[in-house]
Amino acid sequence: MGGVNERSRVTVIGDGAVGLLAVLSAKRLGAEQIILMGRHQARTDLGREFGATDAVAARGEEGIEAVRELTGGHGTHVVIEAVGHMPAYEQALGVVRPGGVISRVGVPQYEEASVGFGSLFGRNIRLAGGPAPVRAYIEELMPDILNGSIQPGKVFDAITDLDGIPVGYQDMADRKSLKVLVKP
């Protein structure tokens, strides 16, 4: 939804499974620069393996300044907000360049967000996103997964059976696990 191509500079906010797969997707689409904003070393390391060119651990104004420094003061063409919380949306507004796109793929945990003249409209920023239409991409992606040229399964760092699902969810919430694979 962000329109990433080989001339794009991309910021991905969030180092969870969705953010990491956004990095993998941006790389696959040929992004020139991919900045991953995340605070967990193992996750940002996987993000670099998936194609991130830079990692920024800082948040808020400090994080915005770090991304702007990495982009010569301009910000990025596309920001993928993969968290869903207001501070992440505010960071997205801070790092997107005028005329850019913010694609929200983190389920929003808020009802109201700044979209007025000073934030989106006045800077000609497009807001996009939503749940992934998996069926739209599966035929194109599945051959690359099966032949190993992309390995999205690396986000699974724990395995459980059906009885372990509640603990698996708690481990993900507590940041003990990135993504838990359920094998019945």
Can you describe what's shown?
By secondary structure, this protein is α/β, with parallel strands linked by helices. The protein folds into two domains: 9-129, 3-Layer(aba) Sandwich (Rossmann fold), CATH 3.40.50; 151-184, no CATH class. It is built from six helices and eight strands; from the N terminus they run E-H-E-H-E-H-E-H-E-E-H-E-H-E. The strands form two sheets. Strands 3-2-1-4-5-6 form a six-stranded parallel sheet, sandwiched between helices. A two-stranded parallel sheet has the order 7-8. The longest helix has 13 residues, at 134-146. The mean pLDDT is 94.
- Along the chain, the helix and strand elements come as EHEHEHEHEEHEHE
**Biggest sheet descriptor:** 6 strands, parallel
CATH C-level category of the largest domain: Alpha Beta
Helix content estimate: 25-40%
Q: Would you tell me the overall average pLDDT?
A: 94
Domains (count): 2
Number of helices: 6
Q: Tally of extended strands?
A: 8
> Looking across the biggest beta sheet, what order are the strands in?
3-2-1-4-5-6
- Could you say what the CATH topology of the largest domain is called? Rossmann fold
Rg, Cα atoms, Å: 16 Å
What's the overall geometry? globular
Please report which band the strand proportion falls in: under 5%, 5-15%, 15-25%, 25-35%, 35-45% or over 45%. Answer: 15-25%
Structural class: alpha/beta
